Amino acid sequence: MKISTQWVDGLCFVGSTEQGHSVVMDGAAPEAGKRGISPMAMLLLGVAGCSSIDVVSIAQKQRQDVRDCICEVTAKRADSIPKVFTEIHLHFKVIGRDLDQSAVAKAVQLSAEKYCSASIMLGKAAAISHSFECIEG
């Protein structure tokens, strides 16, 4: 895997992957006209995306009729520099038809403990927890 960042100006950078996908990142304060997502928020998005992919994929393999999956992440950071994440919580809202709670629970557990590289990696530095709810829809 290879990525790059290129400075735009101020604290704004464009990150690009070798496949040509790009994202704007900005370390400026919101009142300073921030134009992109912060790098620390990008880490949380990565965890949410990685784990959500697992949950949906595993649930579908269990023949669950998943229609949508929303992952809400809350996190706490250390007060002193480096302001690392100390706690991260992922809450999944799995929307579907006739979902089996135990199947969804197993999908979340497998993501957390076995498959989500991002979550498992960050779990070495922060306390990571998971919860879910099944929503008929």
List keywords for this structure.
alpha+beta, 2 domains, 32% helix, 137 residues, N-terminal domain of TfIIb, GMP Synthetase, Chain A, domain 3, three-stranded antiparallel sheet, three-stranded mixed sheet
How would you sum up this structure, described in words?
The protein has 137 residues and is an alpha+beta fold. It has two domains: 3-32, N-terminal domain of TfIIb (Single Sheet), CATH 2.20.25; 39-136, GMP Synthetase, Chain A, domain 3, CATH 3.30.300.20. The protein contains three helices and six strands, in the order E-E-E-H-E-E-H-H-E. The protein has helices at residues 39-61, 101-115, 117-122; strands at residues 3-9, 12-17, 22-26, 65-77, 85-97, 127-136. The strands form two sheets. A three-stranded antiparallel β-sheet has the order 1-2-3, with no helix packed on it. Helix 1 (39-61) packs across helix 2. The protein is globular, with a radius of gyration of 17 Å. The chain starts with a strand and ends with a strand.
